[in-house]
Design goal:
It is a single chain. The chain is α+β, with helices and mostly antiparallel strands. Among the domains are: 1-34; 101-144, no CATH class. 18% of the residues lie in helices and 48% in strands. It contains 2 helices and 8 strands. The protein is elongated and about 95 Å long. The protein starts with a helix and ends in an 8-residue tail after the last strand. Mean pLDDT is 83; it is low at 16-29 and 203-208.
Length: 208
């Protein structure tokens, strides 16, 4: 009983620490969300509510955010942070499916041979059926469709001409945004905003 009591006390303490850590992270995220990290010129007329993420990061940190992009919508995605963090780079990866026709195997198959006239037309009996002459063995090739998944790098802030990525997917898809903060000799903590803006492109939508 004493052994079980120690385990219970340990679990309670661990859960309390994790809970307090979670609360602290939530508070930091809320504080970062209140800061104006991106200028109006950078944000333009996009709606960044819903999928944008604001968090506290340190030099050398990396984080990945998975975002769903809905079809026929215009998106503008970029990452900004406080100046004390230095350079903040981000990449966007889109998973793709590639379909290939692959040979499954070759096996013998019997093929029926029907009688033909000198001009190559089939001959029929009095019942209107083709006249069977015999059969032969042929090699039959079977095929299957093989699906492979690849990860396509569609944006890299270190190589891009613009500090943002714009897209209008033809179908709903999941993307991954990886954010990296440069290392520094003196580690700093600061706010980072992953802005995911959406502009409705459906001309039949209701406008307020």
């Amino acid at each position: 009983m004493k052994y079980n009591s120690k385990i219970i006390i340990f679990l309670i303490k661990t859960m309390s620490v994790l809970f307090l850590l979670f609360i602290a992270l939530q508070i930091n995220a809320q504080n970062c969300a209140k800061k104006k990290l991106a200028s109006k010129e950078m944000r333009l007329d996009f709606d960044y509510r819903g999928q944008s993420l604001f968090l506290e990061m340190s030099n050398g940190d990396t984080t990945t955010l998975n975002v769903v992009l809905y079809s026929k919508q215009n998106y503008r995605i970029f990452v900004v942070g406080e100046q004390k963090l230095g350079n903040i780079d981000f990449t966007i990866i889109v998973p793709r499916k590639k379909f290939n026709r692959v040979m499954n195997g070759v096996k013998p198959k019997k093929k029926l041979i029907y009688r033909k006239d000198p001009n190559g037309f089939y001959l029929y009996n009095i019942d209107g059926e083709r006249i069977l002459e015999g059969e032969e063995e042929v090699m039959d090739t079977t095929w299957i469709r093989e699906t492979t998944s690849i990860k396509e790098l569609v944006y890299d802030s270190r190589k891009a001409e613009e500090p943002f990525w714009v897209a209008k997917p033809n179908k709903t898809q999941l993307i991954s945004i990886k954010v990296s903060v440069d290392k520094a000799s003196k580690i700093q903590k600061g706010c980072v905003g992953v802005y995911v803006g959406r502009e409705y492109s459906n001309t039949y939508q209701f406008r307020r």
